[in-house]
Write a structure and sequence with these properties.
- There is one protein chain.
- The chain is of the alpha+beta class.
- It has 5 helices and 15 strands.
- It has helices at 2-15, 68-73, 141-146, 165-173, 223-232; strands spanning 20-31, 37-44, 48-53, 55-67, 75-89, 93-94, 98-99, 103-107, 113-120, 125-132, 134-138, 151-152, 155-162, 179-191, 202-215.
- It is elongated, with a radius of gyration of 20 Å.
Length: 234
């Protein structure tokens, strides 16, 4: 309702001769668990591999500037700030031995990330270019101590998707039907803390796969996400 009122006021302002206005849109994107899978692989000190399903979502706040020229030429641009992010994975056995517990992927509190949004109604496409400065929190206190806290887990969301006038109006009124599939390819290069046998290790590997996101009316909920909320509250 708030978005529809904002859109009405913005259009009214433009109609009354204002040069430009700005609209802030809150876009919720939910992870599609059926089409989101990543592999966590280490090549040193040992070779190991684990497939992880994903569930959860992210909130992007898009500040879109709109002028009469934008309406005429169909060009729209906006700045994106990253709001809430909570993505959960089952977890795996670290170096095939020690359970990590649940992995909870959340934004870095001091620098959650951001980016840009561009759309052209005539070419019917939009580009999201967002850096998610996220990190993985381990459910196991043992693994968390070995890693020295949360593991940096950033990834870029860079995708060009079909985008019509209907999609633009839907975004501005809170009724979008957007979907983005993003490849993930993040190197792992870190040193564990503490004493041997697991402390003082140089771990090299990668996180790769795909994450599928779709617009949603509300942030996803599930028992796994509830478990992550409890872990983060500790």
């Amino acid at each position: 309702m708030r978005k529809k009122l904002t859109m009405t006021l913005a259009v009214t302002a433009l109609a009354m001769g204002s040069v430009a206005c700005s609209l802030e849109v809150e876009q919720i994107m939910a992870v599609d668990p059926a089409n989101s899978l990543i592999g966590i692989v280490t090549t040193s000190p040992i070779n190991s591999g684990n497939l992880q399903t994903l569930e959860g979502g992210a909130v992007m706040n898009i500040d879109i500037g709109i002028s009469l020229l934008d309406l005429i030429f169909g060009d729209f641009e906006g700045d994106i700030t990253v709001g809430e992010v909570l993505i959960a994975t089952p977890g795996f056995n670290f170096l095939n031995l020690v359970p990590t517990g649940r992995l909870c992927i959340v934004p870095n509190a001091t620098n959650p990330g951001g980016g840009t949004f561009e759309a052209n109604i005539y070419s019917q496409e939009a580009t999201f270019d967002v850096a998610l400065n996220t990190e993985a929190v381990f459910g196991s206190p043992i693994i968390s101590n070995l890693m020295g806290g949360a593991l940096p887990f950033p990834f870029a969301l860079v995708s060009t998707i079909p985008f019509t006038l209907s999609d633009m109006l839907g975004m501005l009124t809170g009724s979008t039907d957007l979907s983005i599939t993003q490849e993930v390819n993040q190197p792992i290069d870190l040193n564990t803390t503490g004493s041997p046998p697991f402390g003082g290790l140089h771990i090299v590997g990668s996180v790769s796969g795909e994450i599928a996101l779709a617009s949603a009316d509300a942030f996803p909920t599930s028992p796994i996400l509830d478990e992550c909320i409890a872990i983060l509250a500790q």
